[in-house]
């Protein structure tokens, strides 16, 4: 079976867009100014829900939040710019509408990816939001420009309710009891630096890793929808990582 974490020949626009959704910590949020109707852009921290839906934690004291309260339509630019010409590095522009998210899953997923936000997450003026995606435009370098439908960008969670329900406990268990293995995932399978890597979330397609400001994404060999298949998926990654030591 082919390793999904090994780069294959060709270019997979959906896979690249999904990776950006999961591994980009900051984005530019464009809203419509409530006073003038013109565009207004600001910097926001981002995370991803289980299906990849962008999550935000924003304050009513911020202009962008007041704009969204008047008109929820918005756009979110997620970019990963390295050295050299920034136009050759990947980015996605996501369009949609912002909806307040009062559920614990949105809170947990956001704070797992953005732990520093726990300091102000409970302030009375802050609230979590989901960006209900209506469109996505990927620019991944010259000649790699693709519009992606929401049904392709976001993961299908049908038949994955068991996995979603056990995700908090699974993530806690892996981070508490398998710290060395998680580090092997990052160093051996992703080629990242050594350190106290942790799993921030799991979903039917893969798992997300974090170390300080770094983020990584690993894919399962096949779709995961239950606690049993999740354990198998983690064991498979562990075997692959140890084989590369």
TrEMBL record:
Residues 13-150 form the CREG-like beta-barrel domain. Signal peptide: none annotated. One of its GO terms (cellular component) is cytoplasm. Residues 169-233 form the DUF2470 domain. InterPro entries: CREG_beta-barrel (IPR055343), DUF2470 (IPR019595), Haem_oxidase_HugZ-like_sf (IPR037119), Split_barrel_FMN-bd (IPR012349). Pfam families: CREG_beta-barrel (PF13883), DUF2470 (PF10615). This is Pyridoxamine 5'-phosphate oxidase. It comes from Alsobacter soli.
């Amino acid at each position: 079976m082919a390793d999904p974490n090994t780069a294959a020949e060709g270019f997979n626009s959906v896979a690249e867009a999904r990776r950006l959704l999961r591994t980009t910590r900051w984005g530019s949020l464009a809203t419509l100014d409530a006073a003038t109707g013109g565009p207004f852009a600001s910097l926001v921290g981002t995370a991803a829900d289980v299906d990849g839906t962008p999550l935000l934690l924003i304050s009513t004291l911020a202009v962008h939040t007041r704009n969204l309260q008047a008109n929820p339509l918005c756009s979110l630019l997620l970019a990963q710019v390295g050295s050299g010409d920034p136009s050759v590095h990947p980015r996605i522009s996501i369009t949609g509408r912002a909806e307040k998210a009062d559920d614990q899953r949105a809170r947990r997923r956001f704070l797992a990816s953005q732990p520093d936000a726990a300091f102000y997450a409970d302030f009375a003026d802050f609230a979590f939001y989901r960006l209900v995606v209506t469109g996505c435009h990927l620019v991944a370098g010259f000649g790699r420009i693709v519009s992606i439908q929401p049904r392709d960008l976001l993961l299908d969670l049908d038949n994955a309710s068991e996995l979603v329900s056990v995700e908090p406990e699974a993530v806690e268990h892996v981070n508490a009891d398998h710290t060395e293995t998680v580090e092997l995932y990052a160093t051996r399978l992703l080629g990242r630096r050594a350190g106290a890597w942790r799993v921030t979330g799991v979903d039917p397609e893969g798992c997300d890793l974090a170390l300080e400001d770094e983020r990584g994404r690993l894919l399962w060999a096949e779709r995961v929808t239950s606690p049993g298949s999740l354990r198998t998926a983690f064991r498979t990654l562990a075997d692959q990582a140890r084989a590369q030591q």
